[in-house]
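Aim 2 progress. For RS21-C6 protein, the working sequence is reproduced below.
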Amino acid sequence: MNPQTISLTELQKHLDQTCKEKGWDKNSVTEVFLLFTEEVGELAKAIRKETGFKGEKKT
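Predicted structure tokens for this construct:
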């Protein structure tokens, strides 16, 4: 999947598949939003560690 050229329909299909893989497909929209937000936060923390942004130490 190329993020530069993905269509909205393709993104929706990808997110649907991701929710199924993570077992989120039985959760409410609010719960999925919270779980997704948590995943984004973990990604942001990993990027900070990798880049050393704002004093994060590489491990």
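The CA atoms of residues 27 and 50 lie 32 Å apart. This observation will guide construct design in the next reporting period.
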